[in-house]
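Reading a protein record of the kind used here takes little practice once its layout is understood. The fold follows as a row of integers, each naming the local backbone shape at the matching residue. With these conventions in mind, the following record can be read line by line:

_____
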Amino acid sequence: MPDQDLSIISLVMHASLLAQAVMGLLLLLSLLSWTHIFRKIFAIRRARTQTERFERDFWSGGDLQALYQSALNNRHQTGSLERIFESGMREYIKASEKGLNDPHAILDGARRAMRACYQREMDALEANLPFLASVGSVSPYIGLFGTVWGIMNAFRGLSNVQQATLANVAPGIAEALVATAIGLFAAIPAVVAYNRFATDIDRLSIRFESFIEEFSNILQRQIH
């Protein structure tokens, strides 16, 4: 019996049509997950840098009106925390211009505005995380399906062979196991990236919430 080429490319090319479809789907999921991973790396890094820069400016003792005006003039460069500050300050200024006499209503309006902006910013930061979680949890099972199907085909082919040997069944099983390998290749980076990004976003979330509380206290002192 001639030696069979057991290279990865050869195994994929000789796999059944369904197994090839499974491998193609897994490779597509892997490509999409890596695209989201690199985008999320840059997005989180940019959000962290912008947050640190604004915290430095805010706690340096500068005028709140000047910070607010700077945020309005540089909207394309503002970060998440700066937009949260801008929304609260805008609501506070509007309430003050309307001559509201209820300090609690003014403070509550500013806090609600910041909370709404905070939620929008968190939704933007968490975009595509569910996709990474899905790829990480589903890809191994998709690969396992391709493997089971390939092994079934390998053993079905033995029905026409009078004497089954390892040489008869090895290529078919090797083809099937490639699907599992590709499934793990797609799943492992997605799981690692998801856990890392979730931790980084949680840390940013804590910083945003702390700022909302601290800025609310500053506004409360200004009102009184």
Observations:
- The mean pLDDT is 84.
